Amino acid sequence: MCGQRGPQSRGGPFRTASHGRSVDCVNSLDLDRRTLVILGGVLATAVALTWFFTRPQPPQPAAVAVTTPSPVASISARPSPSGEVVVEVVGKVQRPAVVTLPAGSRVQDAIEAVGGPKPGVDTSDQNLARVLADGEQIRIGLEPASPVGASPQSTAGGLIDINTASLEALQEIPGVGPVIAARIVTFREQNGGFRAVEELLEVSGIGEATFAQMQPMVTVGAGG
């Protein structure tokens, strides 16, 4: 054993043997230390590799979908001129005015747009559910103006001659406002007058509903 020493003697053979055992012991200790160092390195490497392959993986960031807003939506949100009607509301209402409403609006919508009728005003003479025509005039609480006697603008029966009536006289016709009246005058000037009342349907802005209101009040005289 490296830790035990035999009898020492100052003589030659005993001293030489003792010295040999000491050298062998030192060499054995150095070998043990190297072995421990190597084993320690192998163990450390094994631990490191085990940790590397078994460590929890960091969560991957979720992919974020980016959606580019479509410009079509903002364009379609803007009303187009063809999607509107312009009408005039006159008479006994809170705020008589020319108003712009979405196409398909009713007479009731036009009356509400000017604040409604004044207190006590009867609107039973109006078809509140009628669809509005562009350029028409809605008269609330007013008596229909009937020309008295014969004149270049009217007949003896009180009908308005659409070939001779002025802009003001044309606006006395139910459903006709300043815009429609001006179009009637332009049409008769460009076509040499109306040949029949039914030609009013060829005027822009006069549809079947508006014509139904106008027909009992108009006639074709001079120039037809």
Characteristics:
224 residues; alpha/beta; Ubiquitin-like (UB roll); DNA polymerase, domain 1; 3 domains; three-stranded mixed β-sheet; two-stranded parallel sheet; 6 helices; 5 strands; rod-shaped
Written overview of the protein:
- The protein is of the alpha/beta class and 224 residues long.
- It has helices at residues 12-54, 71-77, 107-113, 167-170, 178-191, 208-214, and strands at residues 84-91, 97-102, 137-140, 160-161, 218-219.
- It has 3 domains: 11-49; 81-143, Ubiquitin-like (UB roll); 146-224, DNA polymerase, domain 1, CATH 1.10.150.320.
- The strands form 2 sheets. Strands 2-1-3 form a 3-stranded mixed beta sheet, covered by helices on one side. It has a two-stranded parallel ribbon with strand order 4-5.
- The relative contact order is 0.09.
- The model is unreliable at 71-80 and 145-152 (pLDDT under 50).
Write a compact overview of the structure shown:
The chain is an alpha/beta fold and 224 residues long. The protein contains six helices and five strands, in the order ααββαββαααβ.
- Major sheet: arrangement of strands: 2-1-3
Outline: rod-shaped
The CATH homologous superfamily of the largest domain: Photosystem II 12 kDa extrinsic protein
Report the order of strands and helices.
HHEEHEEHHHE
Find the CATH topology of the largest domain: DNA polymerase, domain 1
- Domain count: the total is 3
* Strand content range: 5-15%
Helix content: 25-40%
CATH class label of the largest domain: Mainly Alpha
Gyration radius, in Å: 54 Å
Low-confidence stretches: 71-80, 145-152
Rounded mean pLDDT score: 77
Give me the count of strands.
Answer: 5
- Sheet of most strands: 3 strands, mixed
The CATH architecture of the largest domain can be given as Orthogonal Bundle
* Oligomeric grouping of the chains: single chain
How far apart are the first and last residues' alpha carbons, in Å? 146 Å
